[in-house]
Amino acid sequence: MKAIKIHEFGGPEVLGYEDVEVTEPGPGQARVKLAASGVNFIDVYQRTGLYPGDVPRTLGLEGAGEVDAVGEGVEDVSPGDHVAFASTPGSYAEYVVAPAENLVPFNATLVEARVAAATMLQGMTAHYLTHSTFPLQEGQTALVHAAAGGVGLLLVQLAKMRGATVIGTAGTEEKAKLATEAGADDVILYTEQDFVEETNRITGGEGVHVVYDSVGKDTFDGGLDVLRPRGYMVLYGASSGPVPPLDPQVLNQKGGLFLTRPALAQYTANREELLWRAESLFSWIGQNNLNVRIGGTYSLEDAGQAHRDLEGRKTTGKLLLIP
Ligand code: NDP
After folding, report:
1. Same domain assignment for residues 253 and 315
2. Which residue puts its alpha carbon closest to atom 12 of ligand 1?
3. Of the chain's two ends, which shows fewer C-beta atoms within 10 Å, N or C?
């Protein structure tokens, strides 16, 4: 089969389109013939070495397709099942062998495989951020950075479902429009406007209850300035670069703030939690209550271009690789 492998860390040029052997699933594993693989910012961090890992390896953590073989003792899925997954290495490929407990079956007549692939990592992230890390309530206000991004568009929709008022930020007019269509009450063009001043203006100086910050270096300090006393800074990414070390006394000076830096694995800690989040998303998609925007599809061998576009701030919604 074909797969995208890296043998060293570096730019998009280290992504090699290679022949790789298809392996048999071992005990507790299932093999999935992939219909689509999700591209996520974490793949960029893994490619550059910002998140350390072993090389050589096949990149990608997310996808959807059909189970074509199972190993000994597998009860969660059977051959022929349509399944989707996140947090499972090796998805930039035609087949992936995965722990069966990571696979979430979905009804292919209600949810297309591409949409399923596009939902798992970014959708479950938006779910845990709005339902668990800071469970938003009616009447609360959230600031969502990069609101037209893959996580961003889903986060805006889920925050609205929870009854919150949502202020989004976006880099271009086109992105701002998408964030508004997703339900954001206000959108700040943070490449042109000072988002701190604008957020304070919109909230009448009250500030927001929570900042969901995936941008990191460029937005973190400003985010602390728009939180109300005892507000929550949820830093969950570093699209502009990592946030430098922080003196905890700053959280006191800015109003007894809370700071967390969560990751999806902590919020899909067991199969029950994984199924709760993924099945909630699939059911909302099936009922047309959640729109998953696929912002770009690329053939598997064009993974490098997908990375260039994602890193270059050119994309909206989800990027997929089609094997
Ligand atoms: P996005 O689709 O959000 O793409 C990144 C966006 O960030 C860009 O489109 C851009 O939007 C914005 N951005 C702002 N500054 C920069 C910059 N200097 N360089 C590049 N982009 C910039 O990606 P994803 O939805 O895949 O991921 C969003 C973030 O969420 C990532 O940081 C990722 O690591 C994180 N994440 C964290 C998870 C967790 O559990 N902790 C899980 C999933 C994702 P604009 O032009 O509007 O500013």
Report:
1. no
2. 146
3. N
